[in-house]
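Lecture notes, unit on protein representations.

Consider one protein chain, 479 amino acids long.
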Amino acid sequence: MRMNSRIILTLCVGFLLLVPARAQDTLYYTLSQCRDMALTSGTSSKSQQEALLAAKYNRQAALAAMFPRITANATYMWSSRDIHLLANSASFPFGTATVNPDGTASWTWKDIPPTTLSDDAGQLIADSYKAVYDKLTLDLKQIFVAHVGITQPIYVGGRLIHLYKIAKATENIANIESSTKRENTIYAVDEAYWRVVSVAKKKELANQYFQLLTKLESDVQEAVEAGLATQADLLQVVTKRGEAEVKKLQAENGLTLSNMALAQLCGLPLSTAFRLDESGLSETSLPVDSTNTEAAVANRKELQIMEEAQKIAKSNAMIAAAGLQPNIVASAGYIYTNPNAENGVSKNWDGKGFFTAGVVVNLPIAHADDILRYKAAKHAANAVALKTEETRELLTLQTTQANQKLTEAQQKIALARLTQNNAAEVLRMAEESFGAGLITASELMQAQTAWLAAASDLVDAEIEAKTTETQLRKYLGRL
């Protein structure tokens, strides 16, 4: 009994947990909420942040290259034998002194008969030579060298300054591209949002049209039974009702796909069923200062990127020119060695080391390759400048066209709304006339079809106006 109670309790808790999850799929969403979800979903925003940080640190690195660079180095080296500055034997006019492999010294007279006195004198000379030989034998089997140095570029033809300018322009481009991706995301969400609204409305129209034909089929069936209509009239209505059912199914499938597309952009499950705010569908307006095309184009991200690219091209030309100018670099350092040569050559660790300082000047005289690189960089900068001007003209044309397109879309809405009202009135009168037996079912179906077409055209006009308004706001930097 307890086991059954636990099972029932578990099932109830599971059901309660599933209800909120399913209800969540039918939450009410506004355009602003969908935009926020799309901007914060996925890894796109994280990758943009990483790109911005990379550009920032590259700029800081370019700035740091102008300041002194401090380095520390340590070297240890082992050698298998000592270094002897003197040979192991030395010849004099009166004899030869030799340092033997066993470390002893010997002397050989030249043309002097050996005597006890001469042997003692020769050995004294040999011993003296060995003493000098030992002093000039350097124990370099183990060498340690430590160095701490600082280098400071004084003048390198402006290369470092222009490298910093390039890094700064690259960072600006990264920021602009991040803003562009944000705008593109918002624009894509707006398009998907209003597409869902459009398809939902058309689905509603398809359902209404199907219901009208279903009722008409029932009325004509009764008329056939009463002998007031023919079987051919009924077949026409049945055929039309079948077509309406197909349209209804197409609208349902279209709504499902549109919901999935919007859910994917928002980072929601693809099965999410949207209930969207349609209050702003019929409200479109020209953004403020939409006629000031020149100012709008100046704020376009595409043009800003081209202007930064133009700065980079100019700096590249100046870097190429730096190869034709003198380079001056100062350096200073402290060196400590063991063995040290502070007082002869000693392996003691009480040496003080020594300081060094200097300036290096490099003066290019005949560098034909640098001259050609500078000319190539100048032409590349000119090409970017021309491309920037071309981009400005294209963006001006694009903005003007979008402005005109929105004006035309607003006029389409007014005309479509008038046509839809007229079609609705004609349908009402046709239904009354059919009820009075004044017109045929075929004529009533024509009125129904005209009403459906007019209502669908109105939805298309409203959606076109909203997407065009979003596009124009994007072009004006007011999205």
